Amino acid sequence: MNTSPLIRFLALGILGLATAAASAALDAGSRLRKGTLDGSGAHTCTVRADGRVLCWGWNMYGQLGAGNTTSSSVPVLVKNLTNAIAVTTGSMHTCALIADGTVRCWGRNDQGQTGLAGSSDAWEPYLVQGLSPVVAIDAGVKHTCAVLVSGGVKCWGDNLFGQLGNGTNNDSGSPVSVAALTRATSVSAGENHSCAVRADGRVKCWGLGTDGRLGQGEFASSSTPVFVTGLVEVVAVSAGTFHTCAATARGRAWCWGDNGFMKLGDGTSEFRPSPVLVKTETGFLGGVIGVGAGGAHTCALLAGGNVHCWGQNYDGQIGNGSAPYAEPSVSVPTAAQGASGTPLTGIVALAVGGSNTCAVLASGRARCWGSNAIGQLGTNQTAQELPSASTAQAVSNFSVGAKAIALSSGQLHTCALIGTGKVKCWGMNDRGQLGNGQINSIAPLGNATPGEVVAVSGAVALDSGGDLSCAVLSNGRVKCWGAAKATPYEVPGLRGVVHLAVHSNHSCAVTAAGGVRCWGKDDVGQLGNGPGLPVDANTPVEVVSLGAVTNAAVGPDDSCAVRASGALLCWGLGMDPNNTIPNNAPVSMAQGVTTVALANFHGCALPGSSQNALGDRRCWGFNEDGEFGNGGKVSSGVPVRIPGPPEVTGLALSRTNGCARLANGGAKCWGNDSLGQLGDGPPPTEQYFMSADPVTVKSLNSSAVAVTAGDGFACALLANGGAKCWGEEANGVLGNPVTTNAQTPIAVLGL
Predict the structure, then answer these.
(1) Is the pTM higher than 0.85?
(2) Rg (CA), the chain
């Protein structure tokens, strides 16, 4: 069933790169490749699909985490670190977010940037104390920031210019709370300033601002957060060395601050204290799903899977093939090229450093270009052999790995996105759900062993519902399989897709421009295309009156979407037990929402509010089996507040159940338990077949990075790239050839 986008973000935290220094962490939004690539370009790190971290480049202070200070031009494993889901690099230090919500850092610590007591450097990872469960991190040049599950932000390290945001200029070797900042969803740390995106799509920045990099409309610094003027619907922000950029839900890029080398992309060299749109030769850059501000250049990741860069180009960091120093700066976004001289494609994660750029491809391979002064391109070549590269070069001995990086369950099947861009599925196959070109019309009707979906490569996102699954490809197009079609086919008319919501009755896609297009059945208005007689659509139609959307969800007869502002809108049959009048256009349901999930007859949304814990979700619809998880069975046609469980970072709903992934790497489930789908072990009595209160799923060992739920079963993606499932054993849905139901999680074999 539908899995919330926030879960998928966490799932893809286990993949990507980070390049050191004034950080620029990019991701492809809910296309899942949540990678981090930051900095000065002195060293680079990545999290593999198995939760291990690789680093390469400069290592004078132990920032590679290998237990020594020997630099390396090829990736080396970080010591004593497992279950990582994200990594970020500062100028000379590195930090990783672990599945249990803790943070570990290593490298230089002269100003407390690793969060360790004293000022001694750390050559391997150490636990940062004083942090509640963390959901996002970013490292600046000499400071680090973390977003807490509560929506608050804490920072530590250098604070000369107020970049820790606590109203002082005192360095801190332990995390301090950023003042006047709530509802944060992401954070970016630059050289001497920091910025955070709030759940309402607005941005706050703090620290040094004399060149306008805080975006407050004046050339002034601030040791506490200030709003960036005139900027709304933001989905990502990147704080560079001297400038800042943001991507919006409408697919635009905005930049502000220092404009040397024309790195703001407005065609001038004028410093800007307020955001300006990035221009092209014919208009404005569109289709943007991520943007990275580096030292003196900027890059944007586009929905088509390519990257455009502009600004300083002394070392070839734009990637346009120019000879070194032949083109000192590039004023308009220019496509980065592969070694063959053709545009680089299939990009799913991007890092913009001080003088180099790196990208992860959908195949799980990596490419870097720009300066190689300290071996930071990872090509196993010294600076003498390769001083710099103006086209993308292959990183040696690098692969994300053939482990799972995302999961999604339909009614009786589950699919996993693999780090190589392939998809594997298991479970029921009577309608072609496994995408292997076959339909099982006689027993056995399913397969317990994950098998590769044919004709799908370069997948970057995945969703399943009913007996259908679909994947977003790195070029922004969509392929689907199931619902009586055993071989994947491309959905016509879809381009620039960044998020999917799938059910075999109907499906919807969010595009880079923030619009939503739906296709399939429309008998109760679930396509949302406005007045008139409902008409089923084989090709996607535009949902009316939505505005800029970040994520969506569908059930059999309903659809919902979350605007960048936090507004929740729904259309279709509705889930009000007392009202069965359908809506063929979106209607307002709630405010202050970050993500939504739907099942057959109920829905839930997570808020982005400081007044309530993230676990205080909003649910509506039928609650006869305790589907809300609020201890009762009272249904509601309007969203009602459901307290706890605390520290929820994502939701997965099925017909009579719900499950939540917690920031500490655990999970809780509620609702019907007749088949063991709550995962908490045997019931105390034979009559105990449901729980209206959330119960703890056993045996996940604080390593869950995502949960997904089907009809009578649930699964968790683990930080090591494996998966566990629990509940009914029927037609291989647990991914394990057991013959009885599993009341606690068991391993999926073959991932």
Answers:
(1) yes
(2) 24
